[in-house]
């Protein structure tokens, strides 16, 4: 009898998949600022993930411009914690390039991005957790959250999303993200895999999960924290004498200083590098467009060679946001201890090299908000790139155990790093991937775009790949859009980079 009920249930479920399709009310018919026909179907809206707290997560879904019925579905998550995934949409790999308006009150002009990741995949840009971007909770107590709750809510989102868009149920599915998504992605992947294994979940919407990719992602306090000082030395930012002195007093443990001498030495290192843009040490630090005319004129007087460091094929000058945190200049040493680098990455002083004007202008325009189906202003008054209303608790510690579980279970993983990022240096990511002890099956080698070295890669058993992108900073697709589309396409289609 139980078997018969199960057969009937499965029949009804598959009938639902065949007869239902994407909700037309969520279709984005036009995008203000863009003239012409959209290159593929776009959808946007909300999924309620917690009725008790009124948690509603906002998504913007871009169908593949190639073959949406067969191409993989990818969920993109930005970091923070607390940053909207419209960062990826506007500045990194979304379907449009945005041009900064020349006059007040004018919308940014949008043109097609030839390096959009939607060229080869369906992609969901999700504002997560509730309180980020256009996502919200009616009960503001929900804005106190953490690793476990966010992974659970995002998993609920995916199960419900595939019920809304059942025609994508059988497409291969991947997770992707950067920065603090180094926490979001493996914890969410863990929940997805457990849901696939669980018998009851099979009766719901099974996710055809295949793997994940993380760019310049935080992973482990020790590996990430210990990467900064050697990276600064290797890049010529501190002298050999200062490096050796720091090594000596800190005993090569920089992530958690235990003595006053070590804390003061780390503070000295921080002061030496405090004038750099931590998201790309080669890039000039563009200061705010506030009332201080000196900073504006200083930006204008930058040598042309420096300005070119912030130029990519995306159209906008590369600009930096509050993804991570840096040691504040002149940090206060309490009881002989300065906060550790990872603690400050997860919640310290804001870095002033920020300019998010284009995204802010576009996403807070009434016509745009109406077109992309955002919540009423009584629920989400204003879109900001990175919110300060979250109280986030990172309680699960190192992500290494999650990576081991996932790769052992047969899921593909790509850990990629812009090699000029000082916020989450590639050396830390390289070290923890190596620490897994997996056999190397593709020895360290360059990879190429247009006959030029684009970075270096090393392949391990259990479908784990580590990749660097030459000259890129913290947000790799923003700096190297062509290279990023290449390795993204290769990875999601299971091809060698």
UniProtKB/TrEMBL annotation:
User: Keyword set for this entry?
Assistant: Carboxypeptidase, Disulfide bond, Glycoprotein, Hydrolase, Protease, Signal
Give the matching InterPro entries.
Answer: AB_hydrolase_fold, Peptidase_S10, Ser_caboxypep_his_AS
* Lineage: superkingdom: Eukaryota
One BP annotation, GO? proteolysis
As one GO molecular function, the record gives:
acyltransferase activity, transferring groups other than amino-acyl groups
Q: Name one Pfam family in it.
A: Peptidase_S10
Signal peptide feature range? 1-21
In the record, the note on similarity to other proteins reads: Belongs to the peptidase S10 family.
State the function annotated in the UniProt record: Probable carboxypeptidase.
Protein's name in the database: Serine carboxypeptidase-like 20
- Organism for this UniProt entry: Arachis duranensis (Wild peanut)
Gene expressing this chain: LOC107472025
